[in-house]
Automatic annotation (TrEMBL):
Protein's UniProt name: Pyruvate formate lyase activating enzyme
Keywords of the record: 4Fe-4S, Iron, Iron-sulfur, Lyase, Metal-binding, Oxidoreductase, Pyruvate, S-adenosyl-L-methionine
The 4Fe-4S ferredoxin-type domain, residue ranges: 48-81, 83-114
Species assigned in the record: Sporolituus thermophilus DSM 23256
InterPro entries referenced in this protein's UniProt entry, alphabetically: 4Fe4S_Fe-S-bd (IPR017896), Aldolase_TIM (IPR013785), BssD/PflA/YjjW (IPR040074), Organic_radical-activating (IPR034457), Organic_radical_activase (IPR012839), Radical_activat_CS (IPR001989), rSAM (IPR007197), rSAM_sf (IPR058240)
Family matches, as Pfam families: Radical_SAM
Domain Radical SAM core: 17-302
């Protein structure tokens, strides 16, 4: 069956910040957005990919060259004997063998992403459900779960059959039929809005927000019975202005939404960008100051919109 397998890059048990109760968090690969502050860039593409942790490379100390000779794309440069290896990431994109990672004995080179079947995922969820408590369940995150809609739908329907509470963390960037079919099987949703202006949104994420906002409008208009919390990562000099916050407040009034979760910026994704051979655009940015978060929260609260900061969301 075409939907019998999905591609994931992690599964975390005992998550308490991604929906009600204790949950199992499934990170799915593939995302149509390219946010410069992304904490999981390894999940951007719906394919297995190489990651390189330079601090684990023993080339300088032991003159190791196990990886370079086995690379079929000649993308790995063994370098001088006192240097760490170098990777030509453009060549590396075309590789499916990952022979270099298999040859590395120190986990400096690793493969991110693995296939999982609905049956295997169901076994994991049935194992974990004994620890969730009465409110827990599974949360699909990413990446963007909607990219793998066939597998996601198959997994969600299996969860329904097993009476497992379902949640999703999504950008809502998908055609309405896909989004609608998935949301019909979801009990709780975090949906991100990065910016209210379509041009600003496209400038920083690579896509316009029009599809996202229209999907949210339609979801609310069709009386979706689940609980929706909009999320916004607070990014300095991008979406933290009063004009943008006021535009979001107006959108909330339009659709009848009264909950938002604002997330302070952090640099936790920096090392992953480096491991993927990319430069993190926000490495010089500081964590969002508390006074900025407090001011944004006050603007929402003054308009009768519940605003939760960071992990303060009540489930």
């Amino acid at each position: 069956m075409p939907n019998s397998k999905g591609l994931i890059f992690d599964i975390q048990s005992y998550s308490v910040h991604d929906g009600p109760g204790c949950r199992t968090l499934v990170f799915m690969m593939g995302c149509p957005l390219r946010c410069g502050w992304c904490a999981n860039p390894e999940g951007w593409e719906a394919r297995r990919r190489l990651m390189f942790r330079a601090t684990k490379c023993v080339r300088p100390q032991r003159k190791c060259r196990r990886c370079a000779p086995v690379c079929p794309e000649q993308a790995v440069d063994g370098g001088e004997k006192h240097e760490r290896i170098k990777i030509n990431w453009d060549k590396c994109r075309h590789c499916a063998s990952f022979a270099c990672a298999a040859a590395c004995l120190n986990e400096a080179l690793t493969v991110c992403g693995r296939e999982i079947t609905v049956e295997e995922l169901t076994r994991i969820l049935n194992r974990d459900r004994h620890y969730w408590g009465s409110d827990g369940g599974v949360t699909f995150s990413g990446g963007e779960p909607l990219v793998q809609q066939d597998f996601l739908l198959a997994a969600l329907k299996r969860c329904r059959e097993s009476y497992i509470h379902t949640a999703i963390e999504t950008s809502a960037y998908a055609p309405w039929p896909v989004f609608s079919d998935v949301m019909a099987n979801i009990d709780f949703a975090f949906i991100d809005i990065k910016h209210m202006d379509p041009d600003q949104h496209k400038n920083k994420t690579g896509v316009s927000n029009e599809l996202i906002l229209n999907n949210i409008r339609a979801l609310k208009a069709n009386g979706w019975p689940g609980r929706l919390i909009i999320r916004m990562p607070v990014i300095a000099d991008f979406n933290d202005s009063e004009d943008n916050i006021n535009a979001m407040i107006a959108f909330f009034r339009e659709i009848g939404q009264n909950e938002i979760n604002i997330l302070p910026f952090h640099r936790l994704g920096d090392s992953k960008w480096t491991q993927c051979g990319m430069v993190y655009p926000y490495r010089d940015y500081e964590a969002t100051p508390e006074h900025v978060l407090d001011h944004i929260q006050e603007l929402f609260l003054a308009n009768d919109i519940l605003c939760y900061v960071g992990h303060e969301t009540p489930f």
